[in-house]
Write a structure and sequence with these properties.
The structure holds three protein chains of three kinds. Chain A is mainly alpha-helical. Chain A has helices spanning 3-24, 28-48, 52-77, 89-112, 127-134, 143-164. Chain B folds into two domains: 5-45, no CATH class; 51-145, Helix Hairpins (Orthogonal Bundle), CATH 1.10.287. In chain B, helix 4 (51-70) runs antiparallel to helix 5 (74-98) and helix 5 runs antiparallel to helix 6. Chain C is mostly helical. Chain C has one domain (72-355). Chain C starts with a helix and ends with a helix. Classes of the chains: A mainly alpha, B mainly alpha, C mainly alpha. Chains in contact: A-B, A-C, B-C. At the A-B interface, helix 1, helix 2, helix 3, helix 4 and helix 5 of A face helix 3, helix 4, helix 5 and helix 6 of B.
Chain lengths: 172, 146, 356
């Protein structure tokens, strides 16, 4: 047990613990707050893995954007203090067993397949490299996926506006 | 050999190899800054098995799956999908670190974009659904079944 | 024991720096409340606070004491944990941004050791600021939800929508700046604005990116929830907004966090656009004054710029009427974001043209 391990275990406990609480709590707003802590823990993990840029983007996109949106829609659809309905106990037990079986199955696979780290070239996850590769049109460039993803974002933007538009014929 | 507070802490949290390395540096009267210390930490960290990260990612993914199966609130289900996407991101970052491959981290950005699009559309639909049926319970949508 | 000496010194250095910064921010935030009242009084032809001490200078202390003494009320039907978490988070996020701000030029000692007037020079400083700013809205949202009060809830909704939509324009305006300076580190961006005049043109980013500055300052009004964008706490519609149910020091935390945010935003504005600790004729000063004084003058210059911005924020608050909510959203989505995109496009084109 040393410093590196302790930090890893702390972050992992934060991520898993708050993730578990987020899916099991009966209060929707609390679930969103637990999700928030889980995502912040994930950003910490990226920092620890020395991917500072991904960590910062994680904070800006997930914590600052997505979770705010989720809380926003909780504001619009819930009453304070309202408890959520849950499924029947049998279904819950079945869900837990299914998730656990999946976990065990993949776990066995990971343990059997001994991943070994390669040491070919040193990776520098600097912002410049990410930008060059993201917009590169040569081999290993990601210009086309980048464009496709931006069109997806545009479509999502227009789509959510259209969905949220109140049509004139609507009576309520 | 007398040790004062900070040295004892370093001895305790670093493993002995790093500690002796630091001491040898000290004997050469080289100064060592906190950044070098951090680099030493990180060098040591690389020896930690990457499988732990895979286990973490897998556990998070399974928590997400469990949530999707267990809950009947649409917003919670969206949140569980976010957890699962996060687990995949962590997996990609781990493999990127393991194989020194910068391609994986670009996929992380693409996944984040897709997640943002998915959440915005999903929440718009949920809010619309609430306006129509005054509930965000996914079981309400089963009505057409019987 | 060189290792111990240096690391211990390093930790001590940072601890002292952090405490000075936090103490200074708190002090300036306290006196901002006093200044705000005085400014309001001047604009409305009144006298303002003048009972406690000369010119009412002890008024903030009296207010603080009053807030401490008041009875603390937690509504019965509220969510206690979140109710306490809200103001704490607001305060924490207000204080966290100051970590990446370069407060002054490095102090170089005679023996070659360098004392940096910056808590952490991380290479993604601007993104850090962004992240913390986007976290700032959680204080308001948690508090408003936990109050279990309709007015608070409406205020929280308003604050969240406003923050999310203005963050976009803010980010886009900063991207133009980052494209030009080619770095995400605050220290480097400030260093690039050295002096005031270089090779026949101004060095400060304000003169290179005036449009980005205008967009950024409008967005920071919105992010700070200050007039003319204080839709989330407008008394005439929502009683008190998100802090209707809060009392005693929790209310104090919310009010304080707002003023600290204002101070930090002023510092960020002056660092990014008005040269930070750089000022005209700093090279001449550096030759004639001892290094310690050069740093002190730099810090004072930065603080002076920040105070000017704080006064500007206050003048705007007591001059302009409040926006309507649809006008606010129109301004954010239909004017500022297209303008910021246009600015980005023009900046990119100019950079490409100069590269060729």
């Amino acid at each position: 047990m040393n410093g590196a391990n302790i930090l890893f275990y702390l972050l992992a406990a934060m991520i898993l613990g708050s993730g578990l609480l987020a899916v099991t709590t009966r209060q929707l707003f609390r679930a969103a707050i637990y999700l928030l802590f889980s995502l912040i823990g994930m950003a910490g993990m990226y920092f620890w893995l020395q991917y500072e840029f991904i960590a910062a983007v994680q904070v800006v996109v997930y914590v600052g954007g997505i979770t705010v949106l989720i809380i926003f829609s909780i504001f619009l659809t819930q009453q304070a203090g309202e408890k959520m309905l849950v499924k029947k106990t049998g279904q819950q037990i079945f869900a837990a067993i299914a998730a656990f079986c999946g976990f065990a199955l993949v776990m066995v696979q990971i343990v059997q397949n001994n991943f070994t780290a390669t040491k070919n070239l040193s990776l520098s996850p600097s912002v410049t490299n990410i930008g060059n590769q993201m917009l590169g049109v040569d081999k290993g460039g990601y210009a086309l996926p980048f464009e496709v993803v931006s069109i997806l974002l545009l479509a999502a933007l227009i789509g959510s506006i259209v969905i949220a538009l109140r049509t004139p014929t609507q009576t309520s | 050999m007398q040790k004062d507070g900070l040295e004892a802490i370093i001895m305790e949290i670093c493993n002995p190899i790093i500690y002796h390395f630091l001491r040898s540096l000290k004997n050469n009267s080289q100064t060592i800054t906190i950044f070098e210390l951090q680099a030493l930490f990180l060098r040591h960290f690389k020896k930690m098995p990457s499988q732990y990260y895979l286990f973490l990612s897998l556990a998070l993914f399974c928590i997400g799956v469990m949530g999707v199966l267990m809950r009947r609130n649409a917003i919670i289900i969206l949140m569980c999908i976010e957890l699962m996407l996060n687990a995949v991101n962590l997996l990609l970052v781990t493999f990127s670190k393991m194989y020194n491959d910068p391609n994986a981290q670009l996929f992380v950005f693409f996944i984040m974009v897709v997640a943002a699009a998915e959440v915005s559309i999903g929440l718009a639909i949920i809010v619309m659904m609430y306006r129509k049926v005054h509930s965000i319970d996914v079981h309400i949508l089963n009505r057409l079944k019987n | 024991m060189i290792l111990t000496a240096i690391t211990l010194g390093f930790i001590l250095e940072k601890v002292i720096l952090v405490s000075i910064i936090l103490g200074g921010s708190l002090g300036i935030a306290m006196y901002s409340t006093w200044a705000e009242r005085k400014v309001a009084a001047v604009m409305q032809d009144r006298r303002g606070p003048n009972r406690a001490g000369p010119f009412g200078l002890f008024q903030p202390l009296a207010d603080g004491l009053k807030l401490f003494m008041k009875e603390e009320i937690i509504p019965t039907l509220s969510n206690k944990f979140l109710f306490i978490l809200g103001p704490s988070l607001a305060m924490l996020m207000a204080c966290m941004t100051s970590a990446v701000i370069p407060w002054g030029p490095n102090i170089v000692h005679a023996d070659g050791s360098v004392f940096t007037l910056q808590v952490a020079d991380i290479n993604i400083g601007i993104l850090f600021i962004f992240g913390v700013v986007s976290l700032g809205v959680y204080g308001i949202m948690l508090g408003s939800w936990a109050s279990n009060n309709k007015y608070s809830l409406l205020s929280g909704l308003r604050a969240a929508a406003q923050a999310v939509s203005y963050e976009l324009a803010m980010g886009l305006s900063l991207i133009a700046l980052v494209m030009m300076s080619g770095s995400l580190s605050m220290r480097e961006i400030v260093e690039q604005q050295h002096g005031f005049w270089n090779n026949g043109y101004f060095t400060w980013n304000f003169f290179k990116q005036p449009l980005a500055f205008v967009i950024f300052i409008v967005c920071s009004f919105a992010e700070l929830n200050r007039a003319p964008f204080d839709l989330s706490e407008c008394e005439s519609e929502l009683v008190g907004g998100y802090h209707t149910e809060f009392s005693s020091m929790k209310l104090g935390f919310y009010l304080f966090a707002e003023y600290i945010n204002m101070f930090i935003t002023s510092i960020i504005l002056s660092s990014l656009f008005f040269g930070g600790y750089n000022y005209p004729g700093m090279d001449w000063v550096a030759l004639h004054v001892s290094p310690l004084f050069v740093s002190i003058i730099g810090v004072l210059v930065l603080l002076g710029k920040a105070v000017a911005f704080i006064l500007f924020f206050m003048f705007i608050r007591w001059t302009l009427p409040r926006f309507r909510y649809d006008q606010l959203m129109d301004l954010g989505w239909k004017s500022l974001i297209p303008l910021a995109l246009f600015n980005m496009l023009v900046t990119g084109a100019i950079i490409l043209a100069f590269q060729k």
